Fold this sequence. Notes:
There is one protein chain. The protein is built from five helices and 13 strands. By secondary structure, the protein is of the alpha+beta class. A seven-stranded mixed barrel has the order 5-12-9-10-7-6-13. A four-stranded antiparallel sheet has the order 1-2-4-3, covered by helices on one side. A hairpin with a 3-residue loop joins β3 (45-50) and β4 (54-59). α3 packs across α4 (118-126). The mean pLDDT is 94.
Amino acid sequence: MSIATILPTGESALRVTGTTGDREADWRVVHALARRVTSDGVDGVLSAIPTYESVLVEFDATTTGYAAMTAVLQALLAEIDPAAPLPGPSRRFVVPVLYGGDGGPDLGHVAAVTGLTPEGVVAAHTAPTYVVRCLGAPGGSPMLDGPSLPVPVPRLRSPRTHVPQGAVSLAGRQATITPAAAPGGWCLIGRTPYTVLDLAAEPLVPYAPGDTLRFERIDEARFEELAGRRLAPEDATR
Length: 238
């Protein structure tokens, strides 16, 4: 049984989508493939961009083509066990957050639409340990499943033209952090004092898909104390 489909996307890319029928297994398949493609240095591959259940593999069309690249990807997929955890250790991150106030102006709105109190929203947001599913926009935002709320959180009717770096937000049944200032329509419930994006570093953000992350409530004094520090893993095991 095939665990993924491979389809042309544009003139120089292939989209590989997990087809195991299990969302978690599909996520493992596409991220394992992305790691294999990038770590093995496959000839002609320019990049691999994994999401929840698909990975876009971009290639140099002047040196290879759809047929050759499809054969390479099929061979790599044949070596992937959908039930196996992602290769390599997972790092743990703790993100301090000052909830509400100027950094979290939508906390009350989220409480209203979910039927919780603001304290209930904070409790729900700080409860789980999140898995970084993939990196999104802007600037490598960690895409996280959760928290567990009674109903999905709708996006704002009028997106903001400026969301500051460090904003902690919710939309639908997802959570994220904004590494770089940008427009946005997610509901802002808090802000971390940490700097997440480092344009001088490689990679630009310290976490990767498969790492875990949890949020920790802090007060204003602690926010000022931590302001400007860089987000780093609790355990430097990689």
